[in-house]
Task: structure prediction
Amino acid sequence: MTFSFSELDFLKPELGAEFTGDGVHFAVFSAHAEQVDLCLFSPDGKEETARMPLPKREGDIWSGYVAGLGPGTVYGYRAHGPYEPSAGHRFNLNKLLLDPYAKQVIGELAWDDALYGYRIGAAEADLSFDERDSAPFMVKGVVQDPNFDWDGDQAIRRPWTDTIIYEAHVRGMTMLHPDVPDELRGTFLGMCSDPIIDHLTKLGITTVEVLPIQYFPDDRYLLEKGLRNYWGYQTLGFFAPQPRFMSGDRITEFKTMVKRFHAAGIEVIMDVVYNHTAEGSERGPTLSFRGLDNLSYYRLSPEDKRHSYDTTGTGNTLNVAHPMVLRMVLDSLRYWVGVMHVDGFRFDLASTLGRTRHVEFDRDGGFFDAIRQDPVLAGVKLIAEPWDVGDGGYQVGGFPHPFREWNDKYRDDVRRYWKGDEGMIANVSQRLTGSAVQFNHSDRGATASINLLSAHDGFTLADTVSYDGKHNEANGEDNQDGHSANHSHNMGWEGPTDDDGINAARARRRRNMMATLLLSQGVPMILGGDEIANSQGGNNNAYCQDNEIGWTDWSGRDDPFQDFCGRMIAFRKEHGCLRPERFLNGEGDGPTEIAWFREDGAPMDEEAWGQAGRRVVVLYLAKVGTNGEAGKVLDQLLLVFNAGGDGELRLPSVNGVEAWERVLDTGAQAPFDPAAAEATVKAPGECVLAFQPAS
Result:
């Protein structure tokens, strides 16, 4: 069949390939191309069946309408223009380019030298020009029909104060689960299968944060080492779900996952990578953005536009300061919210998104302004990873409302406190109360900090108490990759052991750390698998381990720690004093909302805060009513975090409470029955205790 562009003269505002019911409208941005060709392919993507120059250009948007085309059409682009790397231009019409707005990707990227715009091995390096056709090795876009029966599905919009985040990998979460059907393992449908949803609801999770699911290829150097891009932080298609996570060939499987999670009361947050792409540095392949308009899409060195300007450590940096690149990012975010119904985003290396044209981080920059004024995006959950590898990139506490931020200070200080480092009392007290030093400014609330003990990047919780050093040998980099400052402690033996005493000590420390997380103000995030003692064998950088190292090992799901985590989440939900919306400062004329005490029941003073060897934190928290309940204490707890040895603890009198009962003791694995406490109690070594007013 022969296709041609319609003579209908109209310009639709949407970019990408849009099915109109009678045909498909194609539109793509390039400010510096001289011509952009639409290439159509056979349904399997192997044969190029048509090549047609897009007939219309306006505002640097090239477009055309082809009547008779419909969903399932396979396509790509080729861009004509100068190949002048020193001027920032890398056009090469021999290279098939993936539409930046492609809603689905077909095929597997087959690494071949033809994918590069220059000749691999040439003396001129990337200044040379390669004339081979890359289409046989390239993935292609697929036109989509956006219709889907959402059956009344609505966003949950759970308050941040009630949010419990669970970071999980779609593939890793399901590959080894014995109750997930074999054909669904590693897929969106496996992720939303009954066994997974039952596990999350039983645990009390409110929000799942999935590692990158937008289309990403496997890095060439990893495949050559027999490894794979497991985490997915090499995005190439910002609108397309990753094909390897689909059991079939329909992107509706992602929508089904979101719909099923929503039906279970669970929000879905996507981990997104808008700071760089999979094309790498100027020595990387030409797959999409580089071939369409390298000078617009990427930040280039101000000294020599031949070279990429890299603040991400990946070889390139997406130029979100450019209005059309910023539009692409915003269009992508709106697509995932409006069409795919996700509830929010976690932005990888988000400091890069705040860099201006002059490359400095600016919390009032264009990206943040655009998000805050957008009626679709301003109301969803937004989480920043508040750093990148560029100058001035560490910005914990520096992001504007409504962003929340991953707080690595929380992770490090809590690990160090329970490991026994000296001088940690003041630091860990900050972490318990929302890290006000970092976040209590610019009218930010007490939920600005995303508190975590572990995440995909680093040791799991079980490995934090089982290894003194990283063991990344399987990554093929001589154990040089990954963080070295893990603040971990193996409790007397490196790795697994049959020693009952060491295993009991490790289990107790995990309970102490998880209790600390769930008793802290801010928003808790649990790494998927931590609740069942999942280990990566000491590998703290499993980005390339799409195997048993990176996958969740469900053999520990009968571990008592899973029940403990569920009880701690329920405990947090029961006590409003643990989930304030604003920071507590202990000031005011009403009832005491927050207070710190020594072991003898006296208030903490400057001398006590400065004692490096102090190992006990005693914290009183209260929720005080407002409006009609103003001045009334609605909920109160006395919390004890003892990282030292056995000792005596005198319980203070606060807000008229003279008698307390113990409602939590991490020294006991089994559920703890509330017990009346004397004025002076024995505080077991290495434990977390909680008391509430005696009934």
About this structure: The mean pLDDT is 95.
